[in-house]
Write a structure and sequence with these properties.
Length: about 220
C-alpha cells in the first residue's frame, strides 16, 4: 500500500525538520517547504493527502488561504493548521471561523509531535477533532471579541490614537471610544483602575498573536 503524502508548509527551518522527521517515522511520505510560493508550486505538481500549514508565512498568501483553497479544490484533503496564533483573526480580524473539517493546533499548547500526528490521523479518518481545535478554546479572551473589537485592538497595537482609529474605520470618535472601552472590558481590563489600560491590551494582543517579547522589552 502506498504511503500517504503530506505537505508541510512551515517557515521555521528547525520546526519544519522536526515535523518532517516525525511524520516520516510515523510512515508518511513528506515534502516540506518554507513559503507559500514553494507550496503553490508543489501543489500544482501533485495533490497531497494532507497538508500541515503554518498560518503566518510573511507577505503573500497565509496558510489559511492555502488551506481553504485546498479544501475547495479537493474536499478530501486533510488540513491541519499549526500556528502560534491562538485565533486566526489576530492577523485578519475580518476572517471568519476556520473550516470545521480542519484541525487547528496552537504550537504553545502541543505537548509533543505525537499530538500533531494524532490530529492528522483524526482529520484523515473523519473522526471527532474537537480536541484539536485550539482556536475554539472558550477560555481564550480573544475568542470573545467581535471582528470590530479585534480590529481596534490591532490598530491600538500599532500605536494609533483613538482619533486615528476612528478615521481609519470611518466611525465617530465617540463610537470608537465606546468600542475600545467594551474591548478592554472583554479582556478583563478595568479602565477605572488600570491607568496603563492600552499597554495591557497591547500585551494581550501580542501574547495572542504568538509574538515573543523579552522581559527587557516590557
Amino acid at each position: 500500500m502506498s504511503k500517504r503524502f503530506v505537505v508541510v508548509v512551515e517557515d521555521e527551518p528547525f520546526l519544519r525538520s522536526l515535523i518532517t522527521n516525525a511524520l516520516e517515522t510515523a510512515g508518511f511520505e513528506v515534502a516540506s517547504v518554507g513559503s507559500a510560493a514553494e507550496a503553490r508550486k508543489l501543489f500544482n505538481k501533485r495533490d497531497p493527502d494532507a497538508a500541515i500549514l503554518d498560518i503566518d508565512l510573511g507577505p503573500g498568501p497565509t496558510g489559511l488561504d492555502m488551506g481553504e483553497r485546498l479544501l475547495a479544490l479537493s474536499p478530501g484533503t486533510a488540513v491541519v493548521y499549526l500556528t502560534m496564533l491562538s485565533d486566526p483573526r489576530v492577523i485578519n480580524p475580518a476572517s471568519g471561523l476556520v473550516n470545521p473539517r480542519a484541525a487547528y493546533l496552537n504550537k504553545r499548547k502541543l505537548s509533543d509531535t505525537q499530538e500533531l500526528i494524532d490530529a492528522l490521523e483524526a482529520v484523515l479518518h473523519d473522526q471527532d477533532i474537537s480536541e484539536y481545535r485550539h482556536d475554539l478554546d472558550p477560555n481564550s479572551p480573544i475568542a470573545k471579541l467581535s471582528a470590530g473589537q479585534l480590529q481596534v485592538l490591532q490598530l491600538i497595537s500599532k500605536g494609533m490614537t483613538n482619533q486615528q482609529i476612528a478615521d481609519q474605520r470611518k466611525r465617530s470618535l465617540s463610537a470608537t471610544e465606546a468600542l475600545i472601552s467594551r474591548t478592554f472590558t472583554s479582556l478583563g481590563i478595568d479602565l477605572g483602575r488600570d491607568s496603563n489600560a492600552r499597554i495591557l491590551a497591547v500585551k494581550e494582543f501580542i501574547r495572542q498573536a504568538g509574538i515573543v517579547v523579552r522581559d527587557d522589552q516590557d
